User: Which sequence fits this backbone?
C-alpha cells in the first residue's frame, strides 16, 4: 500500500504550484489530486520495499536449493552405470 503521507505531500506540492488566480480552488484541487494519485498508483499493483525484500530472500533460497539439487543429480548421474543390452 502506498504511504498516505507521501500522497498527501505530493498532492500538496502539485496544488501549491497552481497559478495564484486558481489558488482559491487549491484545497479542492489537493483533495482531488490525492484521490487521483491513490487510484492511479493502486492500479499499478506496486509492492512495498519490505514485501520486495521478503520475495527476494525467498528467491535466493530457492536458487540455492536448486543449485544443490542440480549438483546432487549430477553426482547421481556420474555414479550411474550405463545399462547393458
Assistant:
Amino acid at each position: 500500500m502506498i504511504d498516505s503521507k507521501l500522497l498527501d505531500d505530493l498532492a500538496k506540492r502539485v496544488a501549491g504550484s497552481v497559478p495564484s488566480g486558481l489558488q482559491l480552488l487549491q484545497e479542492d484541487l489537493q483533495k482531488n489530486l490525492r484521490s487521483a494519485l491513490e487510484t492511479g498508483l493502486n492500479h499499478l499493483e506496486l509492492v512495498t520495499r519490505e514485501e520486495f525484500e521478503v520475495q527476494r530472500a525467498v528467491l535466493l533460497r530457492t536458487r540455492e536449493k536448486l543449485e544443490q539439487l542440480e549438483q546432487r543429480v549430477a553426482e547421481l548421474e556420474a555414479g550411474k552405470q550405463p545399462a547393458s543390452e
